[in-house]
Amino acid sequence: MNKKKIIVAITGASGSIYAKLLLDNLLKLSDQIEKVGVVMSDNAKEVWRFELGNEEYDNYPFTFYPKMDFNAPFASGSAKFDTMIIIPCSMGTLGRIAHGISNDLISRAADVVLKERRKLIAVVRDTPFSLIHINNMKTVTEAGGIICPASPSFYSLPKSIEEVAQTVVSRVIDLAGLNMDSYRWNEE
Ligand SMILES: Cc1cc2nc3c(=O)[nH]c(=O)nc-3n(C[C@H](O)[C@H](O)[C@H](O)COP(=O)(O)O)c2cc1C
Question: 4-175: which CATH number, 2.60.40.10, 3.20.20.100, 3.40.50.1950, 3.40.50.360?
Fold first, then answer.
């Protein structure tokens, strides 16, 4: 199996727990992964501090890139990253991607992933959605991206906030083509 090169972008939507769980899961899947590059927006750091009460994003052994670093490898298609996961994805970032406004590393990397016809997974978070949000989701979908809403499921009977949030992250892991044990409906 080819090991994957993955970009994780964390933006300032509510739901830092999704980003934390994804990074935790990727650590456990290191045998399937060649490289993880992470980029956070300023608001992503602020929301993480507010919602999780720490700055533990600094502790992960992945390569972190400043949000305006256009020298990051995945700012160019030549670096051949397979998959980009934006988790959580704010409506602002979604809108910039939908309209090709590549004015930071997150929107540029998404632009590259779409133009190279690679996999973009946007874990969008807001509620309710305006028509602008819905149209932007449609545009990104038509361009080949996958909109994976941060909508947890409950049929696995989760017992904690982490287990609820993991229902979303498990779907993201599946979409990224990584293999991980997780709850499967009606499987033994
Ligand atoms: C605590 C907090 C929660 C937020 N939740 C959301 C959200 O769920 N969805 C969203 O689109 N924006 C949310 N925002 C607003 C975004 O952080 C803001 O629009 C920001 O400009 C997004 O920029 P970014 O995509 O570069 O992080 C939230 C802001 C704060 C401070």
Answer: 3.40.50.1950
